[in-house]
Amino acid sequence: MLELSLDPDQGMPLVDQIVDGVRRRIDDRLLRPGAQVPPIRRLAESHGVSRFTVVEAYDRLVALGYLQSRRGAGFFVAPRVAPAAEASEAPVDRAVDVVWLLRQGFDRPEGNKLKVGSGWLPPEWMDEEGLRRNLRSLARREDVHLTSYGTPQGHLPLRQQLQRTLAELGIGVEPAQIVLTLGATQALDLVARHFLKPGDCVFVDDPGYWTLFGKLRMQGACLIGVPRNIDGPDVEAMRSLLAQHQPKAFFTHSALQNPTAANLSPAVAHQVLKLADQHNFVIVEDDAYCDFQNRPTTRLAALDQLERVIYIGSFSKTLSADFRVGFLACHRELAGVLTDAKLLASLPTSEFAERLVHSMLVEGHYRKYLERLRGRLAERTTATLRMLERTGLELYAEPTGGMFAWARMPGLADAARLASRAAAAGIVLAPGNVFRPQMQPSPWLRFNVAFAADRRLERFLGEAG
Amino acid sequence: MLELSLDPDQGMPLVDQIVDGVRRRIDDRLLRPGAQVPPIRRLAESHGVSRFTVVEAYDRLVALGYLQSRRGAGFFVAPRVAPAAEASEAPVDRAVDVVWLLRQGFDRPEGNKLKVGSGWLPPEWMDEEGLRRNLRSLARREDVHLTSYGTPQGHLPLRQQLQRTLAELGIGVEPAQIVLTLGATQALDLVARHFLKPGDCVFVDDPGYWTLFGKLRMQGACLIGVPRNIDGPDVEAMRSLLAQHQPKAFFTHSALQNPTAANLSPAVAHQVLKLADQHNFVIVEDDAYCDFQNRPTTRLAALDQLERVIYIGSFSKTLSADFRVGFLACHRELAGVLTDAKLLASLPTSEFAERLVHSMLVEGHYRKYLERLRGRLAERTTATLRMLERTGLELYAEPTGGMFAWARMPGLADAARLASRAAAAGIVLAPGNVFRPQMQPSPWLRFNVAFAADRRLERFLGEAG
């Protein structure tokens, strides 16, 4: 049964949406060569679109080499060409609707759109004044070089500071094991380029972080979603996926997972690491939401001590997304190799930006600022949960921190439709399908609590329910 | 005849140097499957190394699958495996000695090493004071957001400013055709990732820009060097290379080419563009040294108007390498696609850095500063040329600007040996082999005029000659 997430109001033509949905499933081998796809009439009826739309989409998929038409018998998935050729054809194109979504996120605020689906905090919550103060002070210092390149692994004092903060999470690491990067995004990119070749299979959280999905597709990887439970990846599901696939890596969030806001339990962490050992894949643990936790929960890196886990972090969420400072920590030899890859990809990262982040961390205000942020988020989370209760939405799990709440409207199978109606009302929602590796339909929605406790949203949800 | 550039004092074991030299030639298909490599004894003698060294290198090449040993007959290049598998094996490893060189460049100054081989200006020549002033002023401005992401294509006023400066070079471009990047390096990276798949062939300048070579190898490309004449690429050589290879792209410098400091002539530009049309490859024109020219010379992009040419520039050489601001300009549709690729690779670049560069360009001091820089460089160039004349070195061509002079010592076939003797004397030279795609031996050396008019160097060259 082919279930696509189609939405006439999404801004992307329905034909493109069908082409894209089918391609993803073929690329990720969920539809195997030789498998029959639904007849035109059936697909049109089950998705409420016209037959012409499906005809055009299938024609295009045939032209692209994804489908074959067998006269009288219908449409079938075409035999695979060699992975290399496949991946190079149009890597970005295959990731295109993720990019489309990504671009929306960077739209400068127009009018008074309510960005309930946003992945960031409102700028006015951030410590702009602290940044200004530290910028001015760095600009005055004669010993801060502004014109020459930084160092290959990044500003040493910041790496030393990270050594201390990672120790608090139970992760033992030397500065030589840390590589500063252009946000967590470049760290993920370097890891993907190092470990994956076109056609390789990777496991990702389902639901999970969709910018990552686009990046992995650009690298030509096949994405397999591991269902996410409230205490982490579904270990039983992972085990049966491992019977069919040999992933090179598993990319996952352990703390305040995006989008579910749930944390990994120690027992599940142990099982996941055991499976990684047995099946020999690396684990890439993205901890972008780390600083939003009041008390640290389990990290895979804390159990494994960076033997097999590559730990990735960022200051984009709490300090500044614009200065682009992130990092990765891993075993020493790999840190050297990934530093080489970083130099070839972009030369050293900005030492000025790294010094700025370092001075923000050590000047003595950061902990206070985080406490304020967490307090504010806790307040808004309570207000959001009350609002969701009043409008009859069902919560996935009580958030333990951070900015997200993951909830669904009873009786609604595909939240994408709700999101397009919301868009027409000036409310930007984040429907669950965008967080799924093949954009499969999902009843869930991610609410950013900083924006969600709002009358307009409550009225909209109340009327929609 | 296999001619490797071996240097016992280079810091990399001789075995590694042989393995690397042979691998490069096989990867780039200069040694074809089935071809015989020189017998152990012959290679040892012709390169002045021990037979044990060659035995160990050949053994390792057999283990790596690059060579086959046929009993009694010698060693032969092994049949190629599929490009995909090949490229993914260890992309960085294959580029490793370029990275090794690259890392040397970022070493913080220790003792009083004389960096004659450096690719940058001395920090004290740069406008640190101007940067500090603009940093402070940006830090004061309330309308400059410091915490949220920049825009996908980059800060519009800087793109508008680039539109004006490119118009002065005769390149007509709209801001929508310009994408700001993390230095020219990310621009080259995005283009390489978009156009090249593992195993694809690319043309590069020989001699040319070696960081680029490492990057292209990381992408799995085969590098074919197009010999560089004083007026640009050797068109006749290019034509015969095109009879054997189908390149996807040609990466080249037109103005103040690195390392020869020579400029492209209009007649050669026209021929190169005609060949690109006939053989359907894109041209990537890296113009990193643009602002060092007093009067602009021919750009491929000015003839072609960004139909087939992708033009790349940077502010790293004249304003700051640390703030990492560069750009690419190309036709509009491609600009959109490369912006998508940029978002997936690294999210938007830093708007603060883009604003800083923009304010440096428009505050009214930049032209004056460039004039000062050019005057200083002209002075040092004269002094360097006199020194080279006194020590009996032969100049490739009189530099018309910029920071490089390309010269050789008569009677010396391989400048790498000279460079290692210099290193022992605390002088860092840039020997010609590092600027060649397969690190072939070269008699040439690149001198940075800002450091070259120096007694220590003169004494060393006088004694070496």
Keywords, separated by commas or semicolons:
homodimer, 465 residues, alpha/beta, Aspartate Aminotransferase, domain 1, eight-stranded mixed β-sheet, 19 helices, 13% strand
> What's the number of domains of chain A?
3
Number of helices of chain A: 19
The proportion of residues in beta strands of chain A is 5-15%
Numbering strands along the chain, what is their spatial order in the largest sheet of chain A? Answer: 3-10-9-8-7-4-5-6
Structural class of chain A: alpha/beta
Chain pair forming the biggest interface: A-B, 74 and 74 residues
Oligomer: homodimer
CATH topology of the largest domain in chain A: Aspartate Aminotransferase, domain 2
- CATH superfamily label of the largest domain in chain A: Type I PLP-dependent aspartate aminotransferase-like (Major domain)
Low-confidence stretches of chain A: 82-96
The total strand number of chain A stands at 14
**Biggest sheet architecture of chain A:** 8 strands, mixed
pLDDT averaged residue by residue of chain A: 90
CA-CA gap between termini of chain A: 28 Å
Mind telling me which CATH architecture of the largest domain in chain A this is?
A: 3-Layer(aba) Sandwich
Helix content estimate of chain A = 40-55%
Write the layout of secondary structure elements.
Two copies of one chain form a homodimer.
Chain A: H1 14-27, H2 40-47, H3 51-63, E1 67-70, E2 74-77, H4 83-89, H5 91-94, H6 96-106, H7 128-140, H8 156-168, E3 178-181, H9 183-195, E4 201-206, H10 210-218, E5 222-229, E6 232-233, H11 235-244, E7 249-252, H12 266-279, E8 282-286, H13 300-304, E9 309-314, E10 326-329, H14 332-346, H15 351-362, H16 366-390, E11 394-395, E12 404-408, H17 415-424, E13 430-431, E14 444-448, H18 449-452, H19 455-464
Parallel strand pairs in A: 4-5, 4-7, 7-8, 8-9
Antiparallel strand pairs in A: 1-2, 3-10, 5-6, 9-10, 11-12, 12-14, 13-14
